[in-house]
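We treat protein structure as text, and this decision shapes the records that our systems exchange. This encoding replaces a full spatial description with a residue-level series of whole-number codes. Below, we set out a record of this kind in full and without editing:
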Amino acid sequence: MSSANKPGLGAAPYIPVDYLAADAAAIQALMIGEAEPEQQKRALAFIINNIAGTYQFNYYPSERDTAFALGRTFVGQQIVKLTKVNVSTLRSDENG
């Protein structure tokens, strides 16, 4: 598939993004716990940058399309947040 359909490039936000076979393979390998390190990185980057459109500008002429796009972005932001959070602090908060 071509890379023409990415969030923020004019396509409606509810249209699935284009992907390559390597993207699908990386996500599938991640899902079953067999992804190589490069596949893990590729899958997470594809989810954050393409599927969620985390860093895209989310204005559309339709208020509904804008809200839909912002929902996708919110998911990506939560994933990015969890990649940066201090896990030691979380564990100490959970323990008391």
Q: What stands out?
A: The mean pLDDT is 91. The first helix runs from residue 21 to 31.
